[in-house]
Design a protein that fits this description.
The complex is a heterodimer of chains A (501) and B (125). With 501 residues, chain A is α/β, with parallel strands linked by helices. Chain A contains 16 helices and twelve strands. Chain A has two domains: 252 residues, Aspartate Aminotransferase, domain 2 (3-Layer(aba) Sandwich), CATH 3.40.640; 129 residues, Alpha-Beta Complex (Aspartate Aminotransferase, domain 1). Chain B has a single domain, classed as OB fold (Dihydrolipoamide Acetyltransferase, E2P) (Beta Barrel). Classes of the chains: A alpha/beta (501), B alpha+beta (125). Chains A and B meet through helix 16 of A and strand 4 of B.
Chain lengths: 501, 125
């Protein structure tokens, strides 16, 4: 298929021309690399007929430069952290240092197969054990599992160990998990998947946990509580020690959603606050690539009391030899093949060792400083309801635009794309009207923060003078306003051939 | 103008009496706040609920919101049209976008709900 020739007048939007897929490009017989001929004769493959292909797979025939151009072009169509600011609150889009990639690609790590003998992978196992120990030190816990493949699976594992503890104690009726309404949306989902019941706790006016509400909610049915600290409003739960006392006295355990560890690392430890379990998202706090549905990692740390309920295999060191150890008996459960997404874990270890303890503390300090700088600047443009000392993120409200000229927060977010800034998280958390949730991370310079503020100031002026410009934004991106309702309701996720038939 | 032929809740639902049943939907305000609605999860016909129970959910491009039942009783009909065309809720929240009908277990409960003037006050706050 030939590319359409574009008139120069549309060069600004040339990226917007729909690109053919890899299957529509190339030509029969093109190859990126030649594999050596196999001279070992017929190989007997022990597969049942229904698992065999009747015909060879219809893979595209492409040269290496074609493949490189294809994917480089796709990445140019996208907004990403290597192109511009990405202040997506709660999601923490931070830069992925190249050094992490070099470490993960070292042959001693990357060329191993998980089924090899432990003796062949002592370096890898030592590195993973070092990461476990480092994460325990950062969080103040006794044991760590690197296996969960994402933050949500870390939550799931957290619920699993708490449930297993209650079952082991004969507390079969402890099935209720308390969740403040400022929590991440995945929390209640993890609870339900684990066969327990979520119960929402309404926050106080200042956005923090209401102790009276908590005291009234705990009882013999309480399995535990899930708390994000700092919470999604970017606020530290100041009463956390009292919260821990109330929940523990009622017989429950405390789970911390450590998604926001990047705000307190090196300053405060969940283990010291009274938590029993924490998960971390390595991409948020330790600069690994955002999983985005691909390989992520949500290591989960627990107290000694909960350690026996962690899934296998565990890494153990005996006289300097590292080995996989399975847990004996019915408690031996697996939540992922092998050791989880090891490549992601190695990137996090590289980041931890490169920064050291002082460096990690400074990462958090800079993330908090950047957020507070933006908070003060943005308060002149739109209201921030909970502004008593934010940590790594804050939530402004776009209601001022709506009152002014029927411009919604969605329109402001779309217009920001025209300034080369990805939109912040919008309409979450639900407890703030027209929420506009900003998290700059420590990666941004003062210049890029100022650019973001200047863009918002201009958008505020446009909302008064030319609201239609915002309501139809974005204008300078490869594609304009998308039909989100259709995308959610009627997704077309499979390539069915050039005619899509 | 808020129609005065029905009752309203703090959670922005409306209920209109039809014989011994109540027709329930969400208000104009709720539909516009939610934005483009992509899915409505309705209760099963025959299920019984108490006033204030969460009986389903409304998913928009912005968020998922709980759907509460304003009065107690048994679900006798749901709006099947919403399954194929959830945008009905945006286009006609007070009419074609109704959600379900409930057999009123206690018509007295209606007295505890807001009238049009009360609901207008709520929106004005």
């Amino acid at each position: 298929m030939s590319q359409p020739i574009l008139p120069p007048t549309v060069c600004q939007r040339w990226l917007g021309v729909q690109q053919p897929s890899l299957f529509e490009k190339g030509s029969l017989g093109r190859r990126a690399l030649e594999m050596p001929a196999w001279d070992g004769g017929e190989v007997a493959v022990d597969l049942p007929d229904e698992a065999r292909r009747a015909e060879p797979a219809d893979l595209p025939d492409l040269s290496e430069p074609e493949v490189m151009r294809h994917f480089t072009l796709l990445s140019n169509l996208n907004h990403h952290i290597e192109r511009g600011m990405y202040p997506l609150g709660s999601c923490t889009m931070k830069y992925n240092p190249r050094l992490n990639e070099q470490v993960a690609a070292m042959p001693g790590f990357s060329q191993l197969h998980p089924a090899q003998d432990a003796g062949d992978m002592q370096g890898l196992l030592a590195a993973l054990k070092l990461l476990e120990d480092s994460l325990c030190e950062v969080t103040g816990f006794d044991a760590c599992s690197l296996i969960p493949a994402a933050g949500a699976q870390g939550e799931y594992l957290g619920m699993m160990v708490i449930r297993a503890l209650h079952e082991a104690n004969g507390d079969h009726d402890r099935t209720e998990i308390l969740i403040p309404d400022s929590a991440h949306g995945t929390n209640p989902a993890s609870v339900v998947l684990m066969g327990m019941k979520p119960r929402t706790l309404k926050s106080r006016e200042d956005g923090r946990i209401d102790l009276d509400e908590l005291r009234a909610a705990v009882g013999p049915q309480t399995a535990g509580i899930m708390i994000t600290n700092p919470n999604t409003l970017g606020l530290f739960e100041k009463d956390i020690v009292e919260v821990a006392r109330i929940v523990h006295e009622a017989g429950g355990r405390l789970y911390m959603d450590g998604a926001n560890m990047n705000a307190i690392m090196g300053r405060a430890r969940p283990g010291d606050m009274g938590f029993d379990v924490v998960h971390m998202n390595l991409h948020k706090t330790f600069s690994t690539p955002h999983g985005g549905g691909g390989p992520g990692a949500g290591p989960t740390c627990v107290t000694a009391e909960l350690e026996p309920f962690l899934p296998g295999p565990r890494i153990e060191e005996t006289d300097g030899f590292f080995d996989f150890v399975r847990v004996p008996g019915p408690g031996d459960i697996a939540i992922h093949a092998w050791m989880g997404n090891v490549g992601v874990c190695l990137r996090a270890l590289a980041y931890i060792l490169r920064n050291g303890g002082d460096g990690l503390r400074r990462v958090s300090e800079m993330a908090v400083l950047n957020a507070n700088y933006l908070l003060k600047k943005i308060q002149g443009i739109m209201p921030v309801d909970h502004d008593d000392g934010c940590l790594h993120e804050f939530v402004a409200s776009g209601r001022v635009f709506k009152q002014q000229s029927e411009v919604r927060t969605l329109d402001v977010a779309k217009r920001l794309l025209d300034f080369g800034v990805h939109a912040p998280t919008i309409y979450f958390p639900l407890i703030v009207d027209e929420a506009f949730m900003v998290e700059p991370t420590e990666c941004e310079t003062r210049e890029s923060l100022d650019h973001f503020v200047a863009a918002l100031e201009q958008i505020k002026r446009e909302a008064e003078s030319r609201p239609e410009l915002l309501q139809t934004a974005p204008h300078a991106t490869p594609v304009g306003r998308l039909d989100e309702a259709k995308a959610a309701r009627d997704p077309d996720l499979r390539f069915l051939g050039p005619c899509n038939c | 103008m808020i129609p005065d032929d029905r009752k309203y809740t703090q959670e922005h639902e409306w209920v209109q009496v039809e014989g011994d049943a109540g027709v329930v939907g969400v208000t104009d305000h709720a539909a516009s706040e939610l934005g483009d609605i992509v899915y409505v999860d309705l209760p099963d016909v025959g299920a019984e609920f108490s006033a204030g129970d969460s009986v389903g959910s409304i998913e928009s491009v912005k968020a998922v919101a709980d759907l509460y039942i304003p009065v107690s009783g048994e679900i006798i009909e749901i709006n099947e049209a919403l399954d194929g065309d959830p945008a009905l809720v945006n286009n006609s929240p007070m009419d074609d976008g109704w959600m379900f009908k409930v057999r009123l277990a206690d018509p007295g409960e209606l007295e505890t709900l807001l009238d049009a003037a009360g609901y207008e006050d709520l929106l004005g706050k």
